[in-house]
Amino acid sequence: MPTSQQHIERAKRNQRFAEHLDLDTSEFRDxxxxxxxxxxxxxxxxxxxxxxxxxxxxxxxxxTQTNNLKELTPISRAYRKLYSYSRNVRYELVDFxxxxxxxxxxxxxREIREYVxxxxxxxxxx
Length: 126
Description:
The chain is mainly α. The chain contains 5 helices and no strands.
């Protein structure tokens, strides 16, 4: 099983990928949305691994954890929205405009990353 640090590195890598594609000109906005979603997925996994709560793989397990763990419920709504956006672009072929991503995706990515970074920092400083 990957370590918490490995999940953090993958989260950052996925975010760099998403940021590498230009929102205004890219024809691959579906991959931008997906890259951002997988970035936050790895932030969640970093926390779950750190807390020895990552006992299963898969979206269903992670969704349950974000809904039920009191430490993660503050970001559960944002996470569920990003999960939904990612599924919609991949399976329902929903197109996101650059403005959609700026308005709906990026604030949720920031919220989750900053929140989980604080959780991880507070755990290491105790």
